[in-house]
Amino acid sequence: MKNKKIIIAGGTGFIGEEMIRYFGKNNHLVILTRQMINALNNRNKYYSLSSTDLANVQYVKWDGINTGDWVALIEGADIVINLAGKSVNCRYTPKNKQEIFDSRTDSVNAIGNAIRLCKNPPELWVNASSATIYRNAVDRRQDEYTGEYHNDFSVQVCKKWEKALYEQETPYTRKVALRMAITLGPGGVLIPYFNLLKFGLGGRQGSGNQMYSWVHAEDTCRMIVWLYEHKHLSGTFNCCSPNPVSNAEFMRLLRKATGHAFGLPAYEWMLKLGAPLIGTETELVLKSRWVVPTKIIETGFQFKYPLLKDALADIIRKVPRRQYHLF
Ligand SMILES: NC(=O)c1ccc[n+]([C@@H]2O[C@H](COP(=O)([O-])OP(=O)(O)OC[C@H]3O[C@@H](n4cnc5c(N)ncnc54)[C@H](OP(=O)(O)O)[C@@H]3O)[C@@H](O)[C@H]2O)c1
Fold first, then answer.
1. Which atom of ligand 1 approaches the CA of 183 most closely?
2. Residue 115 belongs to what H/E stretch?
3. How buried is 276 (Cβ within 10 angstroms: 0-12 exposed, 13-18 middle, 19+ buried)?
4. How many structural domains is the chain composed of?
5. In testing the pocket of ligand 1, which one of 8, 20, 180, 184 has its CB within 8 Å of the most ligand atoms?
6. Is residue 55 part of a domain?
7. DSSP string covering 298-323, please?
8. pLDDT > 90: what percent of the chain?
9. Which residue range is the domain that position 52 belongs to?
10. Does the reported pTM lie above 0.85?
11. Tens digit of pLDDT for each residue in 9-53?
12. 234 lies in some domain
């Protein structure tokens, strides 16, 4: 994709940086951020964006709630991607839960309002959602047609997020809710796994039977290009590789890719004890996410990294060895 104007709200985080790497060289990117200083400094420390990646990238301040000067930049854009939202990697206290909800619905409303102010609205609006919208699935795969939804906290977050998106009236802008699985790249969720590997703890977590749906960040970007180019597509799409694995298999392939012969398992009681100490929730590793991308495959999309071993091989070669080995 070339010479497009792409707005990325919340584009300072892990997935945003991967999108800058993918789209930045050949397109004009506008990154909406609440914190200009952090946006410029807080980059992935061992795989930082190059000056070429950033050549056409403009960082612009917004508050994630209200329309403002930034609306002018949405005018005439080709794609708006909204990734903004408080990280779910925290303790689910009432305050954090509220912020997780509000940061998502507020940013959706702000973008919807901005699009309605445009004389020349963007063609496509891709809003982040999550594959964790489906229930804890140990019995069968979940897809856009037959997936089931329960009502635990993370499911409620996704439901409200998507509802906020679909409530926005943007008659000239196609909307897509991208239900992203755990997104893999040289950073993000792999960082805590690298730390476990370093200390010999790269075994399965819990029973290891819980399913692990994942996607290579490059395939996420490729899917957005596909959705843009196929003008009839809109609605909800799972963004995950067609080959999810169990947690035990994920850890095995990660150990193999990083050259670790063994890794001690983390039993459920250890995770329950440890999670409050490191300010997170066990759900993030113990929930069984068994999700497949039926709809996008039906449109003819092909994943570059359908298999985890290939995805990990590509990612690990970009990460210095000292990140996942003590010596
Ligand atoms: N990573 C995954 O595997 C994954 C999987 C499924 C879904 N998702 C969803 O995809 C989105 C992007 O993921 P990510 O891993 O790139 O997340 P991330 O690294 O946490 O980045 C999210 C960005 O959202 C902005 N943000 C944080 N708190 C906010 C708030 N209270 N109000 C408005 N903006 C706020 C921040 O930008 P500024 O501080 O610059 O404003 C931050 O850089 C998130 O919404 C996440 O829930 C991620």
1. 3
2. helix 94-117
3. exposed
4. 1
5. 180
6. yes
7. HTT---S--SHHHHHHHHHTTS-GGG
8. 88
9. 5-188+214-241+292-306
10. yes
11. 999 999 999 999 999 999 999 999 999 876 767 666 667 888 899
12. yes
